[in-house]
Amino acid sequence: MAKKTVATLQGASKKLTKAIKMVKSPKTGAYTFVESVMAPELVDEFLAKK
After folding, report:
1. What distance in Å separates the CA atoms of residue 50 and residue 44, rounded to the nearest whole number?
2. How far apart are CA 46 and CA 18, in angstroms?
3. Mean pLDDT, consecutive 10-residue segments, the chain of 50 residues?
4. Res 49: pLDDT
5. Cβ distance 39 to 16 under 8 Å?
6. What's the whole-model pTM score?
């Protein structure tokens, strides 16, 4: 289950994107958020990973 919140960040010369994914812990069942800053081309791959 992924929550697709994507904000575009402007760097010096590169365009970066911050992606936030909601992940359910198998041990406790609680949800946590995983954040990552990456190139826009890698966002779909990041959100597809479990």
Report:
1. 12
2. 11
3. 62 76 92 92 87
4. 82
5. yes
6. 0.60
